[in-house]
Amino acid sequence: MDLSAIDPLVLLASLMVAATPILLAATGELVVEKSGVLNLGVEGMMITGAICGLAVAVETGSPALGFLGAALGGAVISLIFAVLTQVFLANQVATGLALTLFGLGFSALLGQGYIGVKPPPTGQVPIPGLSEIPVLGRVVFSHDLIVYLSLILVALVWAVLKYTRAGLILRAVGENHGAAHALGYKVVRIRVLAIMFGGALAGLGGAYLSLVRVPQWTEGMTAGAGWIALAIVVFASWKPWRIILGAYLFGGITVLQLNLQAAGVKVPVEYLSMSPYLITILVLVIMSSGRSRAALNAPAALGQTFHASS
Amino acid sequence: MTGRETLLSIEGLTKAYPGVIANSDVSFRIGLGEVHALLGENGAGKSTLVKMIYGLVRPDAGRMLLRGAEYAPADPHAARKAGVAMVFQHFSLFEALNVAENVSLGMENPPSQGQLARRIREVSQAYGLPLDPARLVGDLSAGERQRVEIVRCLLQDPKLLIMDEPTSVLTPQEVEILFRTLRQLSAEGTAILYISHKLEEIRALCDTATVLRLGKVVGTCTPRAKSARELAEMMVGKLLNETRRSGSAPGAAVIEVQGLSVRSPNPFGTALKDVSFSVRRGEVLGIGGVAGNGQDELLAALSGEVSAPKGAVMLNGTDIGALGPNGRRSLAVLSAPEERLGHAAAPDMSLTENAVLTGAAREGLVRGGFVNWGKARAFAERIIREFDVRTPGPGNAARALSGGNLQKFVIGREILQRPDVLVVNQPTWGVDASAAAAIRQALLDLAEGGTAVIVISQDLDELMEIADRFAALNEGRLSAPRPTEGLSIEEIGMMMGGAHGMEVAHAQG
User: Does the CB of B294 have a partner CB in chain A at under 8 Å?
Assistant: First the structure.
């Protein structure tokens, strides 16, 4: 066993890259859940984004268009979920699971012609000035644009939820859809938009895997990242900044797992790959045992079907 | 109404839902600054009518004129712009948001949060409704929550304020303060459309009353000129029977609760703190109090849904605190919770199945793990017959019954199992007057037969009518029970916790 082979700086830098897909997907899911909808189809939307992004990038030769296509693909497939749960009032849990299964199969079909094809490389954009700071510059400020974008999005989501009227209405809908409806807010429309936003971010996250992390297409390449994203939203107790903490923690475990393997540590990899879920379960238990208000930050209408009966 | 300029006139409004006509050709006028009562039983069409005025529901026919101009709001935003505001029966508030955020959600063009907080303070002081804009609504009492709703309406300077059953969650003192605010508003020229079925309140507050029955206007009157009984008979359309009480003296104590403290199973619930009382054979104990002060928890602790500490709940001297609901049922301690759909009955199951759910042991409906459906059906039919439950048959789903009929079924199911102790929570909530009278009479008859009955209710008139002794829950504590005879409404109000710190503001104003 040779732990000195693990360079902490490289580990940190690659941690940010490894965490970006789940950070994006979890940020999107946070917005969806804040509006009171539980979409378990993150995995399916991510993998759809992964193949859409790769296909568009390969065909156009532009990674930027690829990411755009991935966001669009994710949003479109999330519309299936939106229509089923918001218009036809289907059960959200069952529909979300179906969306994941559908996404996995559908992406495999789309990906038939792209197996082994290399996408055009996504360039790194060191931030001028900041990237020259010793140590920190190399770790934090020498990534591609999507890494920065994912952090900016978290800040944006936080600010919108906290300071704007749109954010207030979104939270209100997730808190008590009956009251929001009585005050004249369009509950279904707001939720459909939130679901599409979540789909777009999950798609971006998926494309980050197929265009940057791997970078190529293999069936089922998200390998549970969508489920980790769902777990992170709960872990973060629906607070945007904690999403970063959760994503980097779980992203870190993924990277560490690879490094430990390379260093020949005798801990079975399976323990590390189950650790994100174990931590989430632990957090859930701790959260629900403390009954204080702050601990129960879940949107009150989460997962409930809304029907304007009046 | 003479001498008042008409603010809103409603002409021939009609609204039908599949299978039911909610409003049929409803017409009346509301004058400027008038306090107008809308009276009617549950299902008379009051809610549909005000939803049409507030833009939540579109009428099928008829029209409304606001100050002579055509008024047809497409949604609540349009209604608010026209100067119509509404305080809802079930609050339209968001518990996880603070007061200022809640107010802002109900406004068309809210100012910045800082400015809004200042205006909330100004308006709430001017009307004697003190509020802290930064507090979370989830932490407020029911009375304070209603203040949030009212202040939200007042900030928009409404011409017409609709109030749907505003006093059902208030203590008598809080009602008095609300009325003062409403009179002040009315004097300033704001018209108020006041929905309630508390007749004494309507007689005290309102200038005019329109009575609805089965979706039609059946009369208009000046409430002060009528007695509460006359108003009730206008609503129901028939003469009401008064409940009969037996004069028999209660016997020995059956159930004794001593120093009962339990945490609430619900995160927003109220823990019970050191609750003590006893109920004797043939006695009815009435437990009042504003909703959310431990009523659900008390029922849960008595029914066995929540286990009680050692020695806290004694039945004839034996500790039953550790027993679950089935254990207690077999000892003839039965209960009927408040929430009919989902707690007292499983909504999508048939009445027969619902009868089995609590009657299995005492009625011998299950043998060796198998349900005897013939016997279960006979039991359900007996409940339907003896309690006049209007339904095609015991095969109907509980959900398909109206609130009053399902309540008669739920109460009947427990009464027919011959309880020694019966605990009911809100036995006549949302039940029409004649069904409510039947349920109250059934509870009194049960007590006469020697059962100890505990009635938890927010309807003080109901408790005064049937209870021998009265106690009030306030923040999880139970006041010492007192005989209902000779108890004044002020004393009851104080037992319920007074006006929750509102007196001071009024003394200043």
Answer: no
